[in-house]
Amino acid sequence: MVEAPSPAPRGPLAGIRVVDLSRLAPGPYCTMLLADFGAEVIVVGGGRAGVAIPEFSRGKRHISLDLKAPAGRAALHALVKTADVLVEGFRPGVAERIGAGYETLAALNPRLVYCSLTGFGQDGPRALEAGHDITYLALAGVLGSMGPKDGPPEAPLNLVADFAGGSLIAALGILAAVIEAKSTGQGQKIDAAMVDGALSLMAMHWPLWKTPHWPARGDGLLGGGSPFYRSYRCADGGFVAVGALERGFFEALWRRLDLGEPPDHMRRDLWPEIERTLEAAFTAQPRDHWTALFAGTDACVAPVLAPDEVWSDPHIAARHPESGPNRVPAVPRLSRTPAQTRPLDLGDCTADVLREAGLSDEDIAAASAPADPAGRSGLDWPPELR
């Protein structure tokens, strides 16, 4: 899919050049966020390393290099000399084997911010093991805290470790290091591990475990045990989400449902009866009835929307009228230099980018990776690059 050539980057990160060697999801999402705020992102693929997730490729330029060949490595080195940031997601030791390790590249460009974004990090007993979001959640105590008490733990898609603990934490580290490099002229290496990010995201919850606030998985105020912080089925099979934690919000919920005098909702001995009362109330009408009834109130009640319903929700549509499933918004909003969703262009920009880096046509031809005849995607790196 090619919408149009990407316009010149604008935004608070305009002038920052990012070389992206990552694949799968966390690295490309991280660099998409940087691109949204104006960074120039150059994605280096080649051969079997195609574009893994096109949805994360907006605003980027794509080149194809044979990093197993001297000419391809030389081209990468020429490009790195012009860059501010490099992002890679290989297992420890792989980048060094293809001439893209931190020590090698920092010698060429001392101001380079080099981000290694991996699951387990650069050291530790599991550093060389394979893993996915659910693996890191399991080790970080996140997975063991999610799901119903009478069922197995449930992962919230791959949002926590991959994107929150991985992409967002890596982007934060990159921005911090870029700011520091602007004043010192010295870059540094960032060891961004998804398992570490998942640990950090639990900061508020660690002290609550095994206390009355959160005695076990599926229990407690936020874990699924409280009747005023959970979802309820409606008459049409849809659901509403109730988050009436504070007394005022709970009273607004109870009175809007015309249930009489609100009970003391923090008394755990009353929770079973409160739950039964709310279940009976919400099953009496379809979801959209409750959506309309609670609109504009402080009862903290919202419809549980399926992914194909989100973009027609009045609030989402008002804030992001140009967005949709294939064009998620650039966030957060900045008042003076806002982020923007630049066009998606998956064309091969190898020749243009390498000419800008000073390579001759002969060098470009030698450095470019041949297309993979099997048509494999970037999810399938050859063994020597895993």
What does this structure look like?
By secondary structure, the chain is an alpha/beta fold. It is 32% helix and 11% strand. The protein has helices at 26-36, 70-80, 94-97, 102-108, 133-139, 159-184, 194-201, 247-256, 271-282, 287-294, 314-319, 350-356, 361-367; strands at residues 17-20, 40-45, 60-64, 85-88, 113-118, 188-193, 229-233, 239-243, 301-303. The radius of gyration is 25 Å and the shape is elongated. The chain has a 6-stranded parallel β-sheet with strand order 3-2-1-4-5-6, with helices on both faces. It comes from Xanthobacter flavus. Keywords: Isomerase, Transferase. GO terms for molecular function: alpha-methylacyl-CoA racemase activity; transferase activity. This is Alpha-methylacyl-CoA racemase.
Estimate the strand proportion. 5-15%
Shape: elongated
Judged by helices, strands and strand pairing, the structural class is: alpha/beta
Radius of gyration: 25 Å
User: Which CATH class of the largest domain?
Assistant: Alpha Beta
- The share of residues in helices is 25-40%
Order of helices and strands: EHEEHEHHEHHEHEEHHHEHHH
The biggest beta sheet is recorded as:
6 strands, parallel
Question: How does CATH name the architecture of the largest domain?
Answer: 3-Layer(aba) Sandwich
- Provide mean pLDDT, rounded: 92
- How many separate structural domains? 2
> What is the distance, rounded to the nearest whole angstrom, between the alpha carbons of the first and last residues?
28 Å
CATH overall fold name of the largest domain: Rossmann fold
The name of the CATH superfamily of the largest domain reads: Crotonobetainyl-coa:carnitine coa-transferase, domain 1
GO molecular function: alpha-methylacyl-CoA racemase activity; transferase activity
InterPro entries: CoA-transferase_III, CoA-Trfase_fam_III, CoA-Trfase_III_dom3_sf, CoA-Trfase_III_dom_1_sf
Region (Disordered): 361-386
EC number: 5.1.99.4
